[in-house]
Design a protein that fits this description.
Layout (H helix, E strand, L loop, with lengths): L1 H20 L4 H4 L1 E6 L8 H10 L2 E6 L2 H11 L7 E4 L2 H9 L3 E2 L4 H6 L12 E12 L24 E3 L5 H14 L1 H13 L3 E2 L3 H9 L5 E5 H10 L6 E3 L12 E9 L5 H12 L1 H4 L13 E2 L8 H4 L15 H14 L7
Parallel strand pairs: 1-2, 1-3, 6-7, 6-8
Antiparallel strand pairs: 3-10, 4-10, 5-8, 5-9, 5-10, 5-11
Bound molecules: fe (ii) ion (FE2).
Fe (ii) ion binds next to loops.
């Protein structure tokens, strides 16, 4: 509560300061420019709530992970972006390594976000978590048949899988985790096993789920929130989500972060810090109409925040925290190379 009050007091002072003392630059200082690879609409509810709380306008440019990273690289010091927001910790790590992001000085962020979900040098922070797991139809698949990502290579799943193409970051990051844990050779055998099962490649997690429902495949590999959305609009939605690799000796389900960093060229650094602090605050991490994680049914990163009731309905599970999010960047290229090498479908 004390943290929230301090935040609003600071915001108020900032607004007053802009208007009263710096009218000539007010336009510039009243904005935070965001390059976002999130694809859930440009005006997300928490962004609007931030503007209402602070008077700082949030301007969003959307694009794919690769396109916006390339744009940041090309624009260099001339970029208008203050914040680079992505749906992949690896991409944030790559941007940080290339000097495109700067360390963020904020006790609020270090308090709100656990170390496992942010860069050690604070060049980026995670703001929500998403699990890549298995969607299945309980009418045709017994949950006892499901176990691990590796087991999808079993020939019993031949002709029964729907998967996202290998050009998509969701597939690349999942495969990067296999390389991290199993080594290149064993990871390659697993992915080759998936390929041998002749999956239907569909470049949309929502359409993968629809295909499972329609019986075109029995299992799909998807991010958890796409199913949560469908359950939200139909509480009797017949498909289920399975968190892989949950056995006692196993590493847990692979997850990625949606997170953000502040660009090295940011003209509105202070506004960018306030923006990220706002998104990490308990009030915006907890379920509500302005929640950052919840409005897309993602998991909060703030450990004091609760998950949306629909996600609680998915049951207890463990995340794979043995693959540090700070290392996702190191296995991304190897994952892409592996996918191409084994003939995994790169397009739909
Ligand atoms: Fe997504």
């Amino acid at each position: 509560m004390r943290r929230l009050s301090a935040f609003f007091l600071l915001s108020l002072l900032l607004v007053i300061f802009n208007i009263a003392v710096l009218p000539a630059t007010a336009q510039n200082r009243g904005v935070v420019n965001v390059y976002s690879t999130r694809h859930y609409g440009p005006t997300e509810a928490p962004f609007t709530a931030f503007t209402e709380a602070t008077g700082i306008e949030v301007r969003v440019s959307q694009g794919s992970n690769q396109a916006l990273l390339d744009r940041l690289r090309a624009e260099g010091n001339r970029t208008v972006a203050d914040v680079f927001m992505t749906i992949d910790a690896g991409t944030l790590g790559i941007a940080a390594d290339e000097g495109l992001l700067q360390p963020i000085v904020s006790d609020v962020l270090t308090a709100n976000i656990p170390e496992a979900f942010r860069d050690a040098d604070m060049r980026w922070v995670g703001l929500s978590a998403r699990v890549r797991g298995i969607v299945y139809n309980p009418a045709v698949v017994d949950v006892g048949e499901l176990s691990t990502y590796e087991a999808l290579a079993d020939e019993k799943w031949a002709g029964r899988l729907c998967m996202r193409p290998g050009s998509h970051i969701y597939t690349i990051s999942l495969v990067s985790s296999l390389i991290y844990h199993l080594g290149e050779e064993q990871a390659e055998a697993v992915v080759a096993g998936w390929v041998a099962n002749n999956p239907i490649y569909i470049d949309s997690d929502t359409r993968i789920i629809e295909s499972v429902l329609a019986g075109q495949c029995d299992l799909g590999v998807v991010n958890h929130y796409y199913l949560a959305r469908l359950i939200n609009s139909d509480s009797q939605y017949p498909l289920k989500f399975f968190f892989p690799n949950q056995g006692e000796d196993e590493r847990g389900a692979f997850f990625n972060l949606s997170g953000a960093g502040i660009t090295s060229a940011a003209l509105n650094y202070d506004n960018a810090v306030l923006f990220l602090e706002f998104l990490s605050s308990l009030e915006v991490q907890n379920p509500s109409d302005i929640s950052f994680p919840t409005t897309n049914f993602e998991f909060p990163v703030n450990p004091e925040a609760e998950a949306h009731p629909i996600l609680q309905g998915f049951g207890e599970f463990k995340l794979d925290e043995t693959y540090p999010t700070t290392e996702y960047k190191d296995y991304q290229q190897a994952a892409l190379d592996l996918l191409e090498r084994v003939g995994y479908g790169m397009t739909e």
